[in-house]
TrEMBL record:
Top-rank lineage group of the source organism: Eukaryota
Necessary cofactors: Mg(2+)
Gene3D superfamilies per record: HAD superfamily/HAD-like (3.40.50.1000)
Annotated keywords: Magnesium, Metal-binding
Binding residue positions for Mg(2+): 123
Protein name: Uncharacterized protein
Pfam short name (any one): Put_Phosphatase
């Protein structure tokens, strides 16, 4: 999958914007991106700019739960939606810390004009809410045998799912989808 996203990001046409929308936390995500970037630095790329950038600059925005190390070495995790403030209004079943559907809509509103197409890659049942908000020209790449696939198959038609659905089991399949998108 690394090759698929770095290739898509490196192309200037069509311009590709990457959003990381995760129920994890900022320390975890930044750690993963740095580890993968360190591995990429050891690889040989034909595009040296890509080698210098790695994955830590891939995402235009990362939306997740805040986290930080305190001076004693403890990892302090916080909810994206503060429990003492106004709560999200999701009726689809998002966790209390974040409604991914509301977060996706807010991201899209901040990045007007509208994207020609949104490609959402997900696997968990908590990805169902944002997938329901996708348009008919959008695509969800759904990991097989996970919560998202079960919800799409069980509830998608009744809930008015509009987007196209592609299934994947391994990262190489996502790479194949991305290559096909270039042809469209």
């Amino acid at each position: 999958m690394v090759r698929a996203v770095t290739t898509a990001k490196a192309k200037s046409n069509p311009r590709t914007t990457f959003l990381c929308l995760s129920n994890a936390n900022s320390v975890f995500i930044n750690t993963i991106l740095k580890v993968i970037s360190a591995k990429l630095y050891r690889c040989v790329f034909s595009d040296h700019t890509l080698q210098e950038k790695g994955l830590d600059t891939l995402f235009d925005e990362i939306i997740t739960n805040p986290a930080e190390w305190d001076p004693s070495g403890l990892l302090k995790l916080r909810r994206r939606v503060d429990p003492s403030g106004p709560q999200h209004t999701c009726q689809v079943g998002c966790s209390p810390n974040m409604c991914k559907g509301e977060e996706l809509e807010a991201f899209l509103a901040r990045h007007q004009p509208a994207f020609d197409r949104v490609i959402y890659v997900g696997d968990g049942s908590n990805d169902y809410c944002p997938v329901l908000r996708l348009r008919s020209e959008d695509i969800v790449l759904c990991r097989t045998y996970r919560g998202l696939q079960r919800r799409i198959q069980k509830e998608g038609e009744n809930d008015g799912l509009k987007c196209k659905v592609g299934y994947w089991g391994g990262a190489w399949e996502v790479e194949e989808y991305f290559a096909k998108f270039d042809e469209l």
